[in-house]
Amino acid sequence: MSSLWLAMPVAPIESLQEIYERPGFILKRIHQVAMALFLEECKRFGITPSQYQALCAIHEYPGIAQSALGRLIGQDRSTIGLVVKLLLDRGLIRTTVNLSDRRSVSLTLEDAGKQMLRRVAPAARRAQHKLLAPLPKESRDLFLALLTALLDAHGARIDPVRVRRETHAERAKRRTSS
């Protein structure tokens, strides 16, 4: 085994500059910049991008299950659980036990959640504008289209219709197996 190891060609070690030029590294840094801009614009509301996205999704899909909410906004189970708990603690959403599957709860906005969305939306839009402002106006749509094309190529774009369909199928399966 060790002689095989010695016979393998040795790749040159990448420089830090090469790492800085990797798409993954650049995307990570852009994500960090986007988060910082959102938090800066929205600090007076005490809301994170994940919480804002969750409120928007619950507004658009009242009665959504927590698992579907996580898939709609690209969050894993533990993260969405924390996000939902924080929104519940702040009185921005409420849960209702699903009558057809008592293991599942539905999420809906409280009036305070709707008010929060109305107050935060302009600040969230300002953050997005600040993120894209350094790009020439004529390049912004192309930039977003290219990012979307990457998501599509890797099967990573979120399709709300599919998420909702999968959630209904999961509930039906649980009902029949109970």
How far is the N terminus from the C terminus? Answer: 52 Å
Average pLDDT level: 91
Topology pattern, helix = H, strand = E:
HHHHEHHEEHHH
CATH topology grouping: Arc Repressor Mutant, subunit A
Number of helices: 9
* Envelope shape: globular
Largest beta sheet: what is the strand line-up? 1-3-2
Structural class: mainly alpha
User: Low-confidence spans: pLDDT under 50, at least 5 residues?
Assistant: none
Please tell me the CATH architecture by its name: Orthogonal Bundle
- Indicate the radius of gyration in whole angstroms: 21 Å
Number of domains: 1
How many strand segments? Answer: 3
Beta strand %:
5-15%
Helix content: 55-70%
CATH homology superfamily: Winged helix-like DNA-binding domain superfamily/Winged helix DNA-binding domain
Sheet of most strands: 3 strands, antiparallel
CATH class: Mainly Alpha
In words, what does this structure look like?
The chain is mostly helical and 178 residues long. It has a single domain (20-177), classed as Winged helix-like DNA-binding domain superfamily/Winged helix DNA-binding domain (Arc Repressor Mutant, subunit A, Orthogonal Bundle), CATH 1.10.10.10. It has 9 helices and 3 strands, in the order ααααβααββααα. A 3-stranded antiparallel sheet has the order 1-3-2. Strand 2 and strand 3 form a beta hairpin. Helix 3 (23-42) crosses helix 7 and helix 4 (49-60) crosses helix 7 (111-132). The model has no long low-confidence stretch (mean pLDDT 91).
